[in-house]
Amino acid sequence: MVDETEKERMKALDDRIAAAKAKQTPKPKPTEDAHSNAELGWRMVIELVAGLVIGFWIGYGLDAVFGTIPIFLVIFTMLGFVAGVKTMLRSAQEFQNRGRDGEDASRDDDERT
């Protein structure tokens, strides 16, 4: 037979295990991380290409209107490239900050315990 103190110890142990399980946060699945990284990669490629295409067409249009050599085409394509790279860097910074915010939140939870 199990005496009362042994039952109390077992109940206390069960309570501590349940509390520890409740504190654990589920870790993201690797496929979710890979999926969000792929989305970021495609987003950055699209931003760069969009900047190039928009700059190209603005330059081409201005050259057609003014009847000039492709000076505006070159200038605006370069400006589109610069704008695309700037947008890519901003997206990368946003992604990095989003990851850092998640780490900070998990650290705050760990420090509270």
What does this structure look like?
The chain has 113 residues and is mostly helical. Helices cover 88% and strands 0% of the residues. It is built from 3 helices and no strands. The chain has helices at 4-23, 30-66, 71-112. α2 (30-66) packs antiparallel against α3. The radius of gyration is 28 Å and the shape is rod-shaped. The mean pLDDT is 84.
Write the layout of secondary structure elements.
Layout: H1 4-23, H2 30-66, H3 71-112
Brief write-up:
The protein has 113 residues and is mainly alpha-helical. It has 3 helices and no strands. 88% of the residues lie in helices and 0% in strands.
SSE ordering? HHH
What gyration radius follows from the Cα positions, in whole Å? Answer: 28 Å
The parts where pLDDT drops under 50 for at least 5 residues are none
How much helix is in the residues? over 70%
| Overall morphology | rod-shaped
**How does the major sheet shape up?**
none
Report how far the terminal alpha carbons are from each other.
37 Å
Assess the beta-strand content as a share of residues. Answer: under 5%
Structural class, from helix and strand content?
Answer: mainly alpha
Oligomer: single chain
* Rounded average pLDDT: 84
- Give a count of the beta strands, DSSP E runs of length 2 or more: 0
The total count of helices amounts to: 3
Annotation keywords:
88% helix; 113 residues; rod-shaped; mainly alpha; 3 helices
